[in-house]
Design a protein that fits this description.
Length: 123
């Protein structure tokens, strides 16, 4: 992963870990890279790496085994999926429905547009 300047680094660390959990790269109960590994790999302050990891600890996605490291919590992948689905609904679906209403689209027309988009995407 390449860190960018458009968002805080700690958020990017947390997002990278979330993506890895969702993709299965870090299965439940597997160990994730240490704070030291993140700080060395990305040349960042360990406190910054810790802040990103703590976002996932606070969300119940990671837990610490004293003296061993950080691990993916049981149920983390499903918790992330549910969270992302809700965010998708709020960020995209609700906005799309409001815009469809503003354009005077019927429910059927909106569904047809969705089906068209899915076909064009190969689904």
């Amino acid at each position: 992963m390449t860190l960018t300047e458009d968002r805080p680094i700690f958020q990017q660390i947390a997002e990278q870990l979330e993506e890895a959990i969702l993709s299965g790269a870090y299965p439940e109960e597997s160990q994730v890279p240490s704070i030291t590994e993140y700080s060395v790999q990305y040349r960042i302050n360990p406190a910054t790496a810790l802040k990103g990891i703590n976002l996932l600890v606070d969300a119940g996605l990671l837990y610490k085994k004293r003296g061993v490291g950080m691990f993916v919590a049981s149920g983390a992948r499903e918790k992330l999926r549910q969270s992302r689905r809700e965010r998708f609904y709020q960020d995209y679906v609700q906005r799309m429905v409001r815009e469809a209403r503003n354009l005077g689209l019927t429910d059927q027309e909106l569904l047809e547009l969705l089906e068209r988009g899915m076909k064009e995407d190969g689904h």
